[in-house]
Amino acid sequence: MMRIALFLLTNLAVMVVFGLVLSLTGIQSSSVQGLMIMALLFGFGGSFVSLLMSKWMALRSVGGEVIEQPRNERERWLVNTVATQARQAGIAMP
């Protein structure tokens, strides 16, 4: 819930700053509303596209792969280590 609130507050803060900049530059108020709506759509849309692409891009940039079932002793050790750390931190296994 906190993530959603921070997401909304961040986007709204950007919209407020964008609106102030438009007002200070003297752009007509009738066109400001349209620009604000477009900025809102692109801002939220860009955030969601970024969120959807982030896991894929992170894995690809480091040549990583998700280990579903360990295939050897090294992968088994890694999965067990991550499971132990997750348990100690009180979070679900990633």
UniProtKB/TrEMBL annotation:
Keyword Membrane: yes
Any single biological process term in GO: proteolysis
The keyword Secreted belongs to this UniProt entry's keyword annotation: no
GO molecular function, one term: peptidase activity
Keywords (A to Z) from UniProt: Hydrolase, Membrane, Protease, Transmembrane, Transmembrane helix
Matching InterPro entries: HtpX_protease
TM ranges: 33-53
Name of this protein: Protease HtpX
Organism whose genome encodes this protein: Escherichia coli
